[in-house]
Amino acid sequence: MNISRRAVLGALAVGATGVVPAWAQDSKGLIVIITPSHDNPFFKAEADGADARARELGYATLVLVHDDDPNKQSELFDTAIAQGAKAIILDNAGADASVAPIQRAKDAGIPSFLIDREITQSGVAVSQIVSNNYQGAQLGAEEFVRLMGEAGDYAELVGKESDTNAGIRSSGYHDIIDQYPDMTMVAQQTANWSQTEAYTVMESILQANPGIKGVISGNDTMAMGAWAALEAAGRTDVVVVGFDGSNDVRDSILAGGIKATVLQPAFAQAQMAVDQADRFLTDGSTGLEEKQLMDCILVTADNADQLETFALAS
Engineered SS bond to 199: which of 51, 158, 225, 300, CB 3.0-4.6 Å? Predict the structure, then answer.
């Protein structure tokens, strides 16, 4: 059963009068799913995957968006606590800022299961299931170097500073690229995971570095923004590599635009988190370590046609 925030709050108000809400009667309890904005298809895939799996297992679900705002995320945690959620599935709004609300939920008896992004403390969440961003970044960097012919000026677009994934991916990129002395980074700028911001940043980089040969991006959304700016400038010769495995980048690869991306399995990762939440609620333990890594997969023109909604067809 998928329920709106308004419906749950209304049900709680009724529950205060002694009437049990219908969703509480008809399910194993409420799982709250909190992610960044669904404008980014990666986060929508996470929410959809968690929502579908939770309902399949007999839970009511409440899907909420924090918009990468730690204050809003904190308010949503208060809402989940007030609603008596059984568990929270979270793609967090900041590695440091998320610790306190997760601890607050834990103190209220509500376990949190993290996906995609880590936090800076262990023992607060039950699970932290993340893509092996370092391994994936190395895959992307190796392909980028190959496509660049091991030489040339390039730019790097970096994600949000508050997101540990941004730094991990950048480190993975450079641990490969920096081994090649003829690869020269002429610009490194954040575009905060944003397509619109990446377009503007790419315009500025192009003006300052007209001889640029490649762009390696911390995610697919920024890669799409960079590619749009390159197309507008008539620079479709520039090699662009992304990270995520979105359908938009898949289509660009198949059309001969962006050259490659790195798939992190958002849908499967979210469903795994729900499975672990269910196991924890049933048995008191997931039987697994808190921090878990899922390997990433390189996507190129050779296998892009098998990619759909952050998963490769088997």
Answer: 225
* Displacement of CA 16 from its chain's centroid (Å): 37
Task: Determine the Cα–Cα distance for residues 215 and 153; give it in Å rounded to an integer.
Answer: 9
As to burial, measured by CB atoms within 10 angstroms (0-12 exposed, 13-18 middle, 19+ buried), residue 2 is middle
pLDDT in tens, 215-273: 999 999 999 999 999 999 999 999 999 999 999 999 999 999 999 999 998 999 999 99
Distance CA 127, CA 77 (A): 17
> Any idea what DSSP says for residue 304?
G
Neighbours of 191 (CB within 10 A): 25
Structural domains in the chain, CATH included, are 5-130+266-294 (3.40.50.2300), 133-263 (3.40.50.2300)
Please tell me whether the overall predicted TM-score, pTM, comes out greater than 0.85 for this model: no
Encoded tokens for 134: 């370092």
